[in-house]
Design a protein that fits this description.
The chain is α/β, with parallel strands linked by helices. It has two domains: 162 residues, Lyase, Ornithine Decarboxylase, Chain A, domain 1 (Beta Barrel), CATH 2.40.37.10; 240 residues, TIM Barrel (Alpha-Beta Barrel), CATH 3.20.20.10. 29% of the residues lie in helices and 24% in strands. Strands 4, 13, 14, 15, 16, 17, 18, 19 and 20 form a nine-stranded mixed beta sheet that branches. Helix 6 links the parallel strand 8 and strand 9. The relative contact order is 0.17. It binds pyridoxal-5'-phosphate. The site of pyridoxal-5'-phosphate (PLP) has 17 residues, from helix 10.
């Protein structure tokens, strides 16, 4: 079970410790629910990417969790930022990430976003046939074009992004027209981008996408006399959410891709990788306080003080999780429990069948692998303020996102403005 947790996770005197800090201390000082990130794990993941692809530019998929402190940690490891909104750009800029390490994505960029991307000196990933003209007016100088390689990732359908019917990217014909027009308008079209999908557990479809990319580049050379200098193959590597899940290590996923790219492009091209989940997912653990424990219709329910407002992945992607009791971490499981959130939805179930020692009120539930696409997609459903986030390292914790208050919730209500 501990291998689902961050590198620094330890069980000491029956209690889970993260980054050298006891879970009970974290919950006492910062409250629950609490999202805890392990700095050591984030740095180790970034280094694993750098080792597997030493010449590549590594760009963090900020959508996994936009946070200035995390972006700064990643920037110290040489990682840039993939952003797709003004908000994500603001986080990247606040973290001091230079424009040349920022890629601006999006299937429907506004004029304001294109102008902001240009002012930031970032590279814009062109994703529509009307974008070259709009990007030129916005002052964009450098771009990639997003190709839809027509491959179907083996993952949840909501996070497949490279099949023919995807809303992202352009067909080969469309991408060639965009390259041609953008160059005519004076934009430096530096290269091509694709992103196969997310939570990938095998590399096959990504290798196929590289082959399709090679075919596209041959056409571009023959028809437009254009040769890309940058090949951005997106992110996508999955993480383990449960003990039975089988996901490759970073090196095993990245190395075959880099070898194929080097084989197809023996002349030097700049490679770009855009991992999100695999950089921060396993680094994050959510701590919840257990409240009601009850039997209903033959099911043993355990209710926690959060749920779909801090982690909607079970509802969005049928995501599965496992958990342990952080304060009784050395006790053996003696039952199967349904972990339900506190929200007014029957579907607000975080874990359908968690094996745990019989939980009691006030126990602490630790849910691993909750660092990506959890709080990033959180909400204030039921008027619940979003939890705090802390970063732990070497026995110390610091708040990197403060807990929302009821005042925060009321601030946006127009009835309280006068
Ligand atoms: C264009 C692009 N790049 C990178 C990512 C990051 O993907 P992941 O978190 O699966 O590595 C995404 C997320 O779907 C994306 O859309």
């Amino acid at each position: 079970m501990l291998r689902l947790f961050p590198d620094s996770a330890r069980i000491d005197a029956g209690e889970l410790h993260l980054g050298g800090v006891a879970a009970s201390r974290l919950s006492a000082e910062y409250g629950t629910p609490l999202l805890v990130y392990c700095e050591e794990t984030i740095r180790a993941q970034a280094r694993a990417y750098r080792e597997a692809a030493p010449d590549a530019l590594i760009i963090y998929g900020t959508k996994a969790f936009a946070n200035v402190a995390l972006l700064r940690v990643l920037a110290e490891e040489g990682v840039g930022a993939d952003v797709s909104t003004l908000g994500e750009l603001a986080f990247a800029q606040e973290a001091g990430i230079p424009g040349e390490r920022i890629l601006f994505h999006g299937n429907n960029k506004s004029d304001e976003e294109l102008r902001a991307a240009a002012e930031a000196g970032s590279t814009v990933v062109l994703d529509a046939e009307d974008e070259p003209a709009r990007a030129t007016s916005a002052g964009v100088r450098r771009a990639l074009v997003r190709l839809t390689p027509g491959v179907e990732a083996v993952t949840h359908r909501s996070i497949q992004t490279a099949h023919d019917e995807s809303k992202f990217g352009l067909s080969a014909d469309g991408a060639l027209r965009v390259v041609d027009e953008a160059r005519t308008l004076g934009i430096d079209v530096a290269g091509v981008h694709f992103h196969v999908g997310s939570q990938l557990a095998r590399v096959d479809e990504s290798l196929l996408a590289v082959e399709r990319l090679a075919g596209f580049c041959e056409r571009a050379r023959a028809e437009l006399g254009w040769t890309p200098q940058v090949l951005d193959i997106g992110g996508g590597l999955g993480i383990r959410y449960t003990r039975d899940s089988d996901v490759p290590e970073i090196a095993d996923f990245v190395r075959p891709l880099v070898s194929l790219l080097r084989e197809r492009w023996p002349d030097s091209v700049q490679l770009v990788l855009e991992p999100g989940r695999s950089l921060v997912g396993r680094a994050g653990v959510t701590l919840y306080r257990i409240g009601v424990v009850k039997q209903s219709g033959g099911v043993s329910f355990v209710a926690i003080d959060g749920g779909m407002s801090d982690n909607p992945r079970p509802q969005l992607y049928d995501a599965r999780y496992e958990a342990l009791l952080a304060n009784r971490a050395d006790e053996l499981a003696d039952g199967v429990f349904r972990v339900a959130g506190k929200h007014c939805e029957t579907g607000d179930v975080l874990i359908e069948a968690a094996e745990l020692p019989h939980p009691k009120r006030d126990d602490l539930l630790a849910v691993p692998a909750t660092g990506a696409y959890t709080l990033a997609m959180g909400s204030n459903y039921n008027g619940v303020p979003r939890p705090a986030v802390v970063l732990v390292r070497n026995g110390e914790a610091r708040v990197i996102r403060r807990r929302e208050t009821l005042g925060d919730l009321l601030r946006y209500d127009a009835g309280t403005l006068d």
